[in-house]
Amino acid sequence: MTLTKTRLFPEIEKVTTSLNFESISAERKIVLQSLIDFIQGKANNEQEIRLNLICTHNSRRSHLSQVWAQTAAAHYGIKNVFCYSGGTEATALFPMAAKTLEKQGFQIKTIAEGSNPVYAIKYNENANPIIGFSKTFDDDFNPQSEFAAILTCSSADQGCPFIAGAEVRIPITFEDPKAFDNTPQQAEKYEERSVQIATEMFYVFSQIKL
């Protein structure tokens, strides 16, 4: 099968070319293997691949994971991948998370204002935008069955003992950059976390054989 890879915006391409898969420990690769196996199984059967990235407030890590996973799938030409995000409660996509993605080359447009703004996030000029806003993991916007639930924070993992409709439940947790809010290191730490998530999501999709 010939893969059709999506060309990303130039600034995103710069970020992706600097990603170092060697920075992922052997232990971490074992954690990521469950996600690789899920995606590979769906790809082998030519089924849609639905990933719901879940964190407590659906404000930082789950959005970064959703955006980078969708971008990685496009970059590697993996078709029929649909990435979502949710939380155990809805808050808002944290502005620094959006600003970090924008700095890394994503085009972000606010399409609805308010306490829980809605953003259109693009990695390519022709691809459908990723719709970013905070919601619970079981919101009607998200898939209700035949998806993988990816727990991106330990509190969501502990707080969601059962996720209806999920075929598999895969904890892939990240440290929360929120710990550095209102500090001089805030921007640096958000970028660091975003790069870590990008590295791992690109590694996952790089392993898919078609």
Structural description of this entry:
The protein has helices at 10-17, 26-44, 61-75, 95-103, 154-159, 186-206; strands at residues 49-54, 81-86, 107-112, 118-122, 130-132, 147-151, 166-171. The strands form two sheets. It has a four-stranded parallel β-sheet with strand order 2-1-6-7. The protein has six helices and seven strands; from the N terminus they run H-H-E-H-E-H-E-E-E-E-H-E-H. The mean pLDDT is 95. The chain is an alpha/beta fold. It starts with 9 loop residues before the first helix and ends with a helix. 37% of the residues lie in helices and 18% in strands.
Quick summary:
By secondary structure, the protein is α/β, with parallel strands linked by helices. Helices cover 37% and strands 18% of the residues. It contains 6 helices and 7 strands.
Please tally the β strands and state the result: 7
Q: Quick one: overall form?
A: globular
Task: Detail the poorly predicted runs.
Answer: none
Rg (C-alpha, Å): 16 Å
Instruction: Kindly report how far apart the N and C termini lie.
Output: 6 Å
